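BUG: 3D viewer hangs when loading the predicted structure for this chain

Environment: internal workstation, default settings.
Expected: structure renders.
Actual: progress bar stalls at 90%.

Input used:
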Amino acid sequence: MKFSMDFDDTNFIALVNAAKYKSFVDEDWNLDMLLQHFSNEMKSGNILVFQMTEEGIEHSWRVDVNFKSELKEQKCYRKSEGYIKVTENQLYVVDYGCLTMAAQFATEKVPNDNCSKYKINIENGIYKVDIIQFYNADKDEYVGTNKIDILFNFTKLPYFEQIVNKVIWCTF
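Structure tokens produced before the viewer hung:
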């Protein structure tokens, strides 16, 4: 499955279980509060959040989604892994604008209208997600391939492992 996230505020993007993610933080949240909220929700398996650029560059991310039990080693800009729980047979890829509006207003939900089209249909369960980023937006360069910008590979597992305690690749 491939799609392109339209050019928007993509400094941070996330994989989110919209049915479980508690999006509201505070009407007057600040970045530290938001990052702590993301961390808490990641520990619960409701979301995985990634800082995609250190320079705040907005980009239309070309995303590939795979369900392979093993990935062959490949050159890339950077990679990580995390775990997420799926409860409604779907996940969404959302951008920073969607996350922050829902963090500030209790009436806003994730995904918003813009991000609702970035839906991943997936069986309920627990998944290890390999995240492989090929495009470095800060330097406008690709490592490994220029056909996609980021790959999410899902492997279904019988257990949840909380291995991430902060936003992935976060420099704050």
